[in-house]
Please model this.
Amino acid sequence: MDEKERIRWFEEARFGMFIHWGDYSVLGRGEWVMFQENIPVSEYEKLADRFKPPRSFSPLEWVKLAKDAGMKYMVLTTRHHDGFCLFDSKVSDFTSVNRAAGRDFIKEYVDACRKVGMKIGFYYSLIDWRMPVSCEGPEKNPSGWKKYVADVVHRQVEELMTNYGKIDILWYDGSFYINNRRTVATTAEHWDAEKLNAMVRRLQPEIIINNRSGLPEDFDTPEQHITPSQPERMWESCMTINKHWGYFATDDLYKPAKELVHILTACVSGGGNLLLNVGPKPDGTIPEEAIVRLKKIGKWLKVNGESIYGTKRASLDTGTAGCASEGKDCYYIFVHWWPGKTLTLPYIKEEISSAWVLSTGKKIGLKREGDRLILKNLPEEPPDELTTVIVLKK
Ligand code: GLC
Model:
C-alpha cells in the first residue's frame, strides 16, 4: 500500500477519543498516583484486587459514546506506567485477566470497536514503574535494562499486535526512566525501537505509529497544546477534557463544550487531529460531565462535520474571527468570536463567489474593499452557540 494512502483515513478522521483506564482508577487520583504518592510496589499491586468492574459494564458504552461525539477512532491504555495490563500477557501476571476483574478488556474493546466501525488504537507505556530497572535506568544497569526491553516490552507489543486482529494505531508513551524522583528522557536505542517497530509493521502492515518510541514514525503528538508540525508531517494534539488523564474524583475543571469545539477547530485549521481524553471511573462509566460535553460536540458535528472531516489546513488570515479550514472548492471560517452584523476578513486575494452559514444555509452579503472581504448583514447573535461556520465558495 502506498504510504500516503495508508495514513489517509487518519488525516481525514480529525477527532478521536483517548481513554486512560486501569487499576489506578480505583483510587481516583489520576494515573500517576503510584509515583506521586510514592506507593510501594507491593501495596500498589493490591489495587488489582479492587479493580473489578461490574459484569454489566461493556466497553461498547465507550465506543457508542465516541460515535455519538462524532469521533472516528479511539486509543485505549493497554497498560500505563504502572504496568497493569488490560490484556492477557504471557510475560506478566499483573493483568486484568489474572486478577480480580478476570477479563480481557482489550479484547472487549476491540470487539466493540469492530461492531460499531470505529478505528482501533492501542496506547502502550514502554516504562513500568514496578520494575527496578525503571529507577536504575539503562546506564546503571545495562543488562537488566536490555532484558526488560527484550523480554517484556518487545514481547508485550508483539502480543498486542498478534492477538487482536487488525489494529489501526499504536500509541507509545513512557519513554523515560526515573532518577531521584525525576523523569529522565530515553532514546529510541534504549528501547531498540528500530527493531520493535519493524516487528510491528511486519505484523500490522497498515498500522499508524506515533513518535513516542523515540523515532518519528507517522505522526507527532503535542500534549495539552496545539502546535502544528510542518505541512507534510501529520500530527495529533492530545488533550484532557478536564485537568487529568486518569479518573480524578475531585477534578471538576471540565472544559466547556464551546472551548472544546474551539480546540477541535484549531487542530483542524492547522492540519492536525484532536485526541480528546476521558478517564472512566473504576466501574467503567464515564463521568457525566464528560458525557454531556461529548454529546454537545457530536450535535455540532452532525451539522458542521463537512468543515472538519477530510478538510485541510488553511493558510487564511481570519482576523478577529477564529480560524479556518479548506475544503475542495471552499474555505470554512470557524467564527469563535462572533462580531455582530459585520465580519471583516482582512486579507483574501482569491475570488470568493458566494458565502453562507453552514448550519442554516443562509446566504451572506459580500463586499470587497481591496484585500479585505466584508461579510455583511449577519445576524446580531451567532446562529450557532458553540462556533458558527461560514462557507466561502471560491
Ligand atoms: C504523559 C503522561 C501520561 C499520559 C500521557 C498522555 O506522558 O505521563 O500520564 O498518559 O502523557 O499523552
